[in-house]
Amino acid sequence: MAISKAMQKKKNKPERSVVFIAFSGEEHGLLGSEYYASNPVLPLSNTVVDLNIDMIGRVDKAHEKDTNFVYIIGDDKLSSDLRPISENMNKKHSQLNLDYTFNSDSDPNRFYYRSDHYNFAKNRIPIIFYFNGVHADYHKPTDTLDKIILPKVHKITKLVFYTALEIANREMRILVDKK
Length: 179
Description:
The protein is of the alpha/beta class. The chain has one domain (2-9, 17-169): 3-Layer(aba) Sandwich (Aminopeptidase). It has 5 helices and 4 strands; from the N terminus they run H-H-E-E-H-E-H-E-H. The chain has a 4-stranded mixed β-sheet. Helix 1 (2-9) crosses helix 5 and helix 3 (82-94) crosses helix 5 (150-169).
């Protein structure tokens, strides 16, 4: 919601439309995003990228001493343009440690296939999945607001905002040049 509000407040509006969608039913088979992909408000052929934010305010065991990170998944799967844009926006605006561990095709967790962005990716729409990894409260009622690291959320949403803005203002669409 904060990214949407920030986008609306910009004096110079993006050249392309930016659509914000909140899906439900992810844990039950990506139902919300699957429905949208089958019944889009705008044609999927007009969708340039999906920037999926899921669980960005916590820290997993691998990063207990480094809250300044985000896992980046899928940024290089369909487009050779997307990772350089993301890394450039990170360098300019967020300075997060971008962790590509879960982006590996051999990752046993297969997170690339397990969140709402996948219904866009399987339709050849490039994606970035921003994720903080699995923690002790993952999918439990103990995953409460007081455990969210708000400065971390702020930095990641800043990265998403500037990445979206850069893509929306490009003269050409990002390439879809990978299978």
